[in-house]
Amino acid sequence: MLEESLWQTVLAQIQLNISEANFATWFKNTRILSKEEEKIVISVPNSFAKEWLENKYQRTILKVLHRQDSKIKKIDFIVGKTNLRTQETPFIVLKTDQPELKISKSSETGLNPRYTFENFIVGSFNELAHAAALAVSESPGLVYNPLFVYGKVGLGKTHLLQAVGNEIAKKSPEKEMRYSSAEMLVSGIISSIRDQTIEKFKALHKKIDVLIIDDIQFLAGKEKTQEEFFHIFNTLYHNQKQIILSSDRPPKAIPALAERLRSRFEGGMIADIGYPDFETRIAILKTKAQEKKDLIPENVYNFLASTIQTNIRELEGALNRIILFQKTHNRKITLDEVKSLLKEITVSPLQKNTPKRLIQAVAEFYDIKEKDILSVSRKKEIVRPRQIAMYLLRKKMQSSYPFIARIFGGKDHTTAIYAFEKISKDLQKDENLERDLNLVYMRFLSG
Ligand code: ADP
Ligand code: MG
Predict the structure, then answer these.
(1) pLDDT reported for residue 345
(2) Which ligand has its closest atom nearest to the C-alpha of 152?
(3) Cβ neighbours around 263 below 10 Å, total
(4) Which range has highest mean pLDDT (28-37, 148-157, 403-412)?
(5) Checking CA distances to 352, which of 63, 132, 310, 381 falls within 20 to 30 Å?
(6) pTM for the whole thing?
(7) Which residue's CA is the nearest one to ligand 1's atom 9?
(8) pLDDT tens for residues 295-328?
(9) Is the separation of the CB atoms in 110 and 178 below 8 Å?
(10) Which of 312, 314, 351 to mutate to test the pocket of ligand 1 (most atoms within 8 A of CB)?
């Protein structure tokens, strides 16, 4: 069981660092099978996921794992051995060169049974969205169509949308239901256009009773997809089928969205989710701790709720780490220990630690303009920081030389190699340089 919570904690951390669509695609159906001294074995749903996890996420996973258990050196990914409660199938598999795959009830809805109304906490911040969602789940297609829920990341949009889906599935199992992120919708549409199966793709989707598309802002600028989606939308709408959408902003703030889609989105119910207040954050923490059957000290709840204010997922992530700590140490955690745990979280490779920010940190440190460091200027006071930025990108962020060259105005990648070697060499004889680089990097890490 300890293994299971170890993996859950790792997942919670990773979820903070990658896009939701990527998380859903590659991590959601993974489970830990075993853990030995230096190795853990993870089960994955298919060989595609195995390949991606091995090639693209291995390093990230290990990094996060090391914070929990520094002994682990190796991860094996095994296809298959899951006893999943949920099998999420992205739109992509609906390609009609697999004729036996038809959208059907239960296992292919894309819904995760974990997200229900029962475990969704309501406060003034999400009251309206919750009420609308509940109404929709009671009479799909009839009250609010489409239902459009918007709010910032980590505040419960996906949970709420899925709760509607799960509720309808429970009450009316005969209904065709489909949950998908907009990202998956886009890849589904693109690949079926490529395979010339778009008509079938559309026909299939027009049979759906409840269509849920998450993070619709992702359609911005994707004209072809918008056009195809518009047709699906219209058919469903006219047949009084329920459409539920979410976005990180209201329809009018989504850039490059075709006017006709925008007005469709605005034609139903628009409900926003705001930020939970302090009391609600405490309630959320306590409910989640109870679900996991592990309580944490009262002052820790207070500390978490006052430190993490704008993201329920982060609250949950912190709580999970604390619970894991308590399980591994077999005692309650202290406030000081919580503080140092959280510090680690904030120093972890979060999304905000982008190449752009690293370059900004270097520019700031050497007191030059970001625009200059990215320019072609050959002035000495610019060239040096530029080389340092290139060095750090390579050394600390494992950026490739061509990538670095591209950032710096499409220079030849040998320029980046040269910069890296030059700074590496200088570092060996210049202690001040080493100190400066550490300072820059620390500053970058601390945001
Ligand atoms: P979003 O889609 O808005 O980024 P999610 O729905 O993924 O956010 O929520 C992030 C995490 O926080 C999920 O684990 C979810 O279960 C939890 N969560 C969000 N809102 C609530 C809530 N009102 N009650 C309980 N858990 C919540
Ligand atoms: Mg979401």
Answers:
(1) 57
(2) 1
(3) 12
(4) 148-157
(5) 381
(6) 0.61
(7) 156
(8) 899 999 999 998 888 889 889 989 988 998 898 8
(9) yes
(10) 312
